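quick q for whoever's on today - can somebody do inverse folding on this one?? i tried earlier but teh output was garbage lol. tokens:
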């Protein structure tokens, strides 16, 4: 008996790669992101999912909407899946952050570092552990999709693999990508990582 959990990163917004948006309000999907969200929805045939969840952040809810419509599911909101609270860094340009020694420490000592006025990754890991436990309890078997954020998805994968948080550098989690886990009491395995085949420039594609 196992839960198959599809971890979907939200589609692109216009500031992705330039600004650390974090929990900033009003960050909506851009034109490219809306296209990505529509393509992501096409990967899951009607009836392919038993439940659908999303982070409360706007860009995740907007990514979830076409998937919910195509699968006939009302998305549930999971606060545990919310973006990292980046505190004082929220809204900063990545180029400016590169000059901040605290930002460098965040990236080089991920297991112990914390965002100024925000979360540490140890706290993020604790809530991801709680998130996985909630989903296992609600859905001991079946197929569930969760739309969340890169750091949340990386942390969930590292948790299943038993790797330290600093190993995040080994994992690519692109906008509108699909990663997948099998979860059972006391364990799990990674089924797929950073699948972006649905974003290929073609009208055909397999459904999950």
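ok took a stab at it. sequence:
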């Amino acid at each position: 008996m196992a839960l198959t959990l599809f971890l979907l990163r939200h589609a692109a917004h216009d500031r992705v790669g330039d600004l650390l948006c974090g929990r900033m309000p009003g960050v909506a999907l851009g034109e490219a992101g809306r296209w990505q969200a529509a393509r992501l929805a096409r990967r899951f045939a009607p009836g392919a999912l038993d439940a659908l969840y999303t982070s409360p952040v706007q860009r995740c809810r907007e990514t979830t909407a076409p998937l919910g419509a195509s699968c006939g599911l009302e998305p549930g909101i999971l606060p545990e899946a919310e973006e990292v609270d980046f505190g004082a860094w929220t809204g900063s340009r990545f180029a400016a952050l590169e000059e901040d020694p605290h930002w460098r420490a965040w990236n080089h000592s991920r297991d112990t570092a914390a965002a100024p006025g925000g979360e540490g990754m140890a706290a993020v890991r604790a809530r991801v552990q709680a998130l996985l436990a909630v989903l296992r309890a609600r859905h001991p078997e079946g197929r569930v999709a969760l739309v969340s954020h890169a750091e949340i998805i990386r942390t969930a994968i590292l948790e299943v693999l038993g790797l330290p948080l600093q190993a995040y550098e080994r994992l690519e989690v692109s906008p509108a990508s699909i990663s997948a886990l099998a979860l059972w009491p006391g364990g799990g395995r990674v089924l797929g990582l950073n699948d972006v085949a649905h974003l290929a420039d073609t009208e055909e594609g397999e459904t999950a």
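fwiw Residues 203-207 have pLDDT under 50 and may be disordered. also Residues 42 and 207 are 7 Å apart (CA to CA). so keep that in mind when u check it
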